[in-house]
Amino acid sequence: MRLFSAVLACWCAIVSGTPAAAQHSSPETRIGEEGFESPPATLAQMDWLVGQWSGEGIGGAPATESLLPPAGGTMVGTFVQTKHGEDGAEAIMFTEHMYLMEENGSLVLRLKHFNADLTGWEEKDEMLTFRLVAIEPCAAYFNALTLRCADADRPGEGLVAAVRMKSEGPEVRELLFHFDPAHGSDKSVRCADALTTVDMNECFSETLTRADAKRVKYFDAAIERYADRGDLLEAIRESQTAFEAYRDTECGAVLQNWIDGSIRGAMTLGCRIDMTDQRTHRIWQNWLTSLDSSTPVLPEPQPTR
């Protein structure tokens, strides 16, 4: 219990913040200035995080991080830290239950800790909250907690998690975790590296579902922004109908070109993913940004992975 209390004290220090003199930059974690505003962000920008990840945790013992696809504006996840028992067998040290949520146009990470017997560290109605400080392609920097791709150019092939710990002096101390895709996780097989046509088609289908969901989100935001412009709303809706017809025709031609090949499904789905991402970016550029330096209604959409 003493170990749990010490770790919990470190976590609590993260939420309450360290003295200003101790807030130095570090290779991984970032601290928001007092009263900082979180940047615009959506769960669509966090699709690279979905999956099951495993690696070495505290004391070199195995640790696992798992994130489910978003549902209702929330991505639910768990973290399991094991320990080596006296007999050498692995046992649960503690777990975390996480909610990565869309809130006030940005993202916030909330979590609670549990002992191996499911007794909680925090009080019944209490939780730790990490507000977003900055977001980049394949990286999210929450206040004192970072989640990012090990390689931004190869999402899905590695995950880095870091949390800033309490320090009595000016030095920055962090807990750093390096994860690989867990065996059997969807993230362990990239679409282009799938071993069978069925796996490849399934992977591309899931990617298209995420791309379409993102497009709908940005389109709905455009409709809401110009709700009082009836003539413009009609034109935007007509452009969407025209896009869908063009995408169907163009990708139908791609299918016809590969009709005798086993990869016809993957080629067609790839076409639809690319065109959908292009459409989402065009919606953002035309209807969700301004000519001045004001913040866009939604962040710039990134290619769907």
UniProtKB/TrEMBL annotation:
Keywords tagged on the record: Signal
Domain Lysozyme inhibitor LprI-like N-terminal: from-to ranges: 191-281
InterPro entries in UniProt: DUF6265, LprI-like_N
Keyword field contains Signal: yes
Keyword Zinc in record: no
Signal peptide: 1-21
Pfam families recorded: DUF6265, LprI
Every DUF6265 domain range: 47-150
Protein name, entry field: Uncharacterized conserved protein YecT, DUF1311 family
